[in-house]
Amino acid sequence: MKNSISEKVPFWLDPKKRGIVFQIGTFCMVGLLAYYLISNVLINLEKQAVATGFDFLQKESSFEIGETLITYSAASSYGKALIVGALNTLKVAFVGIIITVLLGTTVGIARLSTNWLVSKIAAIFIEVMQDIPILLQLFFWYAIFYESLPSPRQALNPFAGLFLCNRGILFAVPESHPAHKYIFIAFVIGCVAAYLLYRWARARQEKTGQIFPTFSVGTGIIIGLPLITWLISGAPTEMDIPVLTGFNFEGGMSFSPEFIALLIGLVLYTSAFVAEVVRAGIQSVSKGQTEAAMAVGLRPGQVLKLVILPQALRVIIPPLTSQMLNLTKNSSLAVAIGFPDFVSVANTTINQTGQSIEGVALIMALYLIFSLSTSVFMNWYNKKVALVER
Amino acid sequence: MENTIQDTQTSEIKPPIIDVGVIGWMKANLFDGVFNSILTIITLILLYKTVPPLISWAFIDSTWLSTGPECKEATGACWSVITTNYRLILFGLYPYELQWRPLIAVIILIGLLFYSKDRKHWSKYLGYAWIIGLFVMGILMRGGVLWLKSVETSEWGGLPLTLLLSIFGLTVAYPLGVILALGRQSKMTFIKYLCVVYIELIRGVPLISLLFMSSFIFPLFLPEGVTLNNLLRAQVAIILFTAAYVAEVVRGGLQGMSRGQYEAAESMGLNYYLTMRLIILPQALRIVIPPTVSVLISAFKDTSLVVIISLWDLMKTTQTVINDPQWMGFSREAYIFIALLYFLGCFSMSNFSRKLEKELDTGY
Known about the structure:
The structure holds two protein chains of two kinds.
Chain A: H1 15-48, H2 78-111, H3 116-131, H4 134-148, E1 162-165, E2 168-171, E3 173-174, H5 179-208, H6 214-232, E4 239-240, E5 243-245, E6 248-250, E7 253-255, H7 257-284, H8 287-296, H9 300-330, H10 334-337, H11 342-353, H12 356-388
Antiparallel strand pairs in A: 1-2, 2-7, 3-4, 5-6
Chain B: H1 2-12, H2 21-29, H3 34-60, H4 68-73, H5 80-91, H6 100-116, H7 124-142, H8 158-185, H9 189-204, H10 207-216, H11 218-221, H12 230-255, H13 259-267, H14 272-287, H15 289-302, H16 314-323, H17 331-361
Helix pairs in contact in B: 5-8, 5-16, 6-7, 8-9, 8-12, 8-15, 8-16, 9-12, 10-12, 12-14, 12-15, 13-14, 15-17, 16-17
C-alpha cells in the first residue's frame, strides 16, 4: 500500500501551486497584451505627431457653448469648457432625477391602483417607454420642438408669463430684489429648525410615547419663515416677463429646446423603470403587515409612514439608485441632439485637439466617479438598513 | 316540507343585478368609492380630449401614398414618408437591386428566433441551426462567394445592421460574460480582481464612451498597416460592453447555487472544468434566462447608439430620409415608424421572458 501523504505530489496536480502558475501565466499574458497595445499606440501617435498629456487643458478653446452655468467664452481654456460641460451634465441629471422619482412613484402607485382604467394606462405607459430606445425618444422630442412648435413671433402662450416656441420654453421669474437673499436665508434657517424639531420630537416620543405633529409644524416653519421675511421686506411682486423684441425673446428665464428634449426623454424613459421598481417594492410588503398595523390601532397615515414605507424603501432604494445612475449615464446621449453636456464638449475637444485618448479617459473618469460614489452610498445604506433589521 | 322551501329559495334568489355582469365589474373596478370615481371621470375626460384627435391625425386625415408637397397640405399624419422611402429606411445604402439578400437574411433570423421561442425545441440541433443560419446570413450580406456579388460592410445598413449588431453582440458577449462571471467567483486573487475591475469599469461608464473609444482609440491600438472597419470596431465595443452586464447576470445565477451542489460534484471526483460544465453552469444559466433576455433587450435598444459614430443603422437611415428636403418636417411620422419596429422587437422579447419566468417558476 502506498502512503499518499508522504508521496510527493507533482506540482500540476497540486491545486495551490497550479493556481499560482496559472495566475502568473495570466499576468504575463495581460502584461504582454498591454505592452503590445501601448507600444502600438506610442508608435502611431508619434507618426501622427499628436501631442500627449493634459497640457491642452490650459489652452484657449476657441469654441462657444450655448448654455453655461458659469461665465465662459471662446477665449476660456479647454479645462473650463469641460467644467461647463460637467456642470451641464449635473444640471440635467439633478433636475431629471427629481422629476423622475416623482413621476415614477406616481406611475408605480397608479399601476397598483384598484381603478382598472388608471392601472391599465400606467401599464401601457411603462411598456411603451421601456421598449423604445432612449436615443429615439430624445430625437422624437427634439423633432417635436423644432418642427411642431411655432417661431418666437407666434409663440404659444398657454397662460400669462409662459411662452412655448421653437427656441425653447420661456417663463416669468420674480425681478431681482435685495429681499431675495434674506428670503433664501430664512428658508435655510427654516429647514434647519424643522430638522431640529424632528430630532426633538422623536427623542420625546421615544421617552414619553407622546406624538408631536412634526410634519405640519415643520412644513409651517419651512414655508412660514420665508413668507414672513417676504412680507417684512415690503412684499415685492414685480415679475420679469419675457418680451418679444425683434426675432427673439428677452428677459425672464428660458430653457433651450435641447435641454427640454433631453429632460423629457430621460424623465419619461427612466420613470417607466422607476415605476416598476416602486411597484415591486410596494408589492414586496405583505398584506399581513398592513392588517397587523391596523389591528394595533394605527391610523392609515401612520400605517404608511411607520410600517409600509420603511419596509418597502429597503427594497426600493438599491434599484432606484441604480436607475438614477442610469439616468446620469444616459444623459451622455445629449451629444446626439446638441446639448452641451460633458461628453459633447469632450467630443468637440477631441475633434479640435486630436487628443482622443485623454478625451475618452476624461469622459470615463467622470462617469466612474459618479458610479463609484453611488456604490459607496449604496454600501453605506445597505449597512444602515442591515443594522435596523432583526 | 322544509326541504322544498329551501329548494325554491335557492333557485329563485339571484345576486343583485348591480353586483354582476358589466355593471358589477364597473362598480368594482371603476367606481369603487368617491376618490376612484373622480379619478375615472378625470381619466375619461383626458382620454376623450387626446385620443380622438390622435386617431384622426394618424388615420382619418392622414396621407399614405403621396408626394412631399401634397403631404404639406394635408392636416393629418404623412405616412407617405414611410411608404415612399421604406427601402432606404430598412436597408440603407445596400445596392437597390440586391436588397433581396438582406431581406432573406432578416427572414431567416426572425424565423430562427420564433422557432427558438418554444423551449421544447431547445436541443443540440437548434444550436447547429443557429450556427448555420448565422453563417448563411453572413454570406448573404457579404456576398463574394458563389455567384453572389460582394457588398462592402460600409454599404450595410438599416434593420439588418441593427439586428446583426445585437445578435452577434450577444452571441459573442455571452460566453465572454460567463467566463468573466466564473473569474469573479474564482479563488485566485489576481484573476478575481482582474475580472472585478473589468466588470465594474465597464458598467460604470456609458456605452457611448466605449463607442468613442472604438472610433478614436482602437485604430491606434493596431500595428501599422492593419485597419479594422468601422462596423467591426463598433461591434467589438458592443461586445465588450454587453459582456460585463451578462457577467453580472450570470454571477447572480452562480450565487444562487447551493453549496451542496459543489460538494456533491467534488465528492464524485469531478475537476473544476467538469463541475462547472456538467453541474453548476447548466443549473445556474437556466435560473438566469429571464434576466438574460432583458440584457438582450437592452443590447438591442443600445445598438441605436451607433448612429452617433455614424454607422448606417435604422436610426441613421431614418435621419437620412427626413433630412431630404422633400420630406423635411415629417420626422414625427418617421420616428414613430421605427419606434414601432423597436417596440415590436422589445415587446415580444419581454413577453417571452415573462412567459419563461412563469414556466421556470413552477416545479423546482
